[in-house]
Amino acid sequence: MKLSDLTPGRENNFNLIRIAAALAVLITHSFAVAIGTGDAEPIRKSIGMSIGSIAVDVFFITSGFLVTASLLTRQSTIEFIWARALRIFPALLMMMLLTVFGMGIFFTTLPLQTYLTDSQTYIYLVKCSTLITGVAGYLPGVFNDNPYKSVVNGSLWTLPIEIKMYAILTIGWVALRITKRFGLRAFEVFVVTCAVVSGVFVVAYHFHRATENSFSTLFFMFFSGAAFYVLKEHIRLSSLCFWAFVFALILSATVIQHEFFIVYVLTISYVLFYIAYVPSGLIRKYNLAGDYSYGVYIYAFPVQQSVAALIPGVSVLSMLLISVSATLVLAALSWHLLERRALGLKGLYVGHTRRILNYRLKGASTRSR
């Protein structure tokens, strides 16, 4: 079955994939936050990558696919940017306010006045809320005695990179639309070229230096997802190919481990989109719950650092159980009270634009009489 036959509508497993990826990041961070290093994670020892790193790649592949679909189906580029902003910033800003003026005040070892007047407090708030110039790492006096010292939210570093991917994709689309006759085809060539060239670079560079979650790897993952969307008419999702790729991944992870990354880079996107679209039935019931993945992703690390501060010497297992429970509650509240409502404002831009256009057209019609 062609991928294009399955993409219309919302009948897919992306919500489930994303929540699994967010929880995988939480699992990896449980090792780092509880004992001060993520090197003890068993899967990292066997294949050279953490489950959290794989999850970040999954996020970028998924994002590349879905964001490209959104860009090509929106009525305008500004509408697309508005939709992306609504998905990222309302929940992020709420999390930042709770972090800085709730958790930060509770855990800082500094006097309250010193904490609230320290410029670093507001540098952290502004940088991590806007993502324009990257993110800041610490708040004054917060988590200084934790095993993973001072880092308040070790998950946010991927968000500025993702925004850069949006920008590159959007600039490419806008620039190539100028050639109206070949605009869409030129954009497709641009996307596929980005994926192929970056893929070759990542594979070649891997033999000289580790490329786990490097900018070039994330660039490839994002544009790999984007390429799958623009080539969806030419891609068939086959059970034979899926299981062959899964077998290759298992073989490279267990027998020829030094080749795992190469096999992984070449197969992960196909495996991901097969899982996203082919399994159906009860698995789709998860979509009724909502999309908690973003909330899990942005809240998990501060929750884990809080657990480490409140329970010195906490085990990895205890860290995992406590932080999963607390983070899921926060993520559910974030989705139902804020994120879902913010996404409902997508039409605000469209409606406002239409009112302006109708007003101008009406005015022009009146003047012409």
**SSE order:** HHHHHHHHHHHHHH
Helix content: over 70%
Report the count of strand segments: 0
Quaternary organisation: single chain
GO molecular function: acyltransferase activity, transferring groups other than amino-acyl groups
GO biological process, one term: polysaccharide biosynthetic process
Protein name: Acyltransferase 3
InterPro entries: Acyl_transf_3_dom, Acyltransferase_3
Write up this protein.
The protein is built from 14 helices and no strands. The protein is mainly alpha-helical and 369 residues long. It has one domain. The C terminus is likely disordered. This is Acyltransferase 3. One of its GO terms (biological process) is polysaccharide biosynthetic process. InterPro entries: Acyl_transf_3_dom, Acyltransferase_3.
Give a topology summary:
Elements: H1 14-35, H2 42-47, H3 51-73, H4 77-107, H5 112-117, H6 119-130, H7 158-176, H8 183-206, H9 215-230, H10 239-254, H11 260-277, H12 293-310, H13 316-343, H14 346-368
Helix pairs in contact: 1-3, 1-12, 1-13, 3-7, 3-9, 4-6, 4-12, 4-13, 7-8, 8-9, 10-11, 12-13
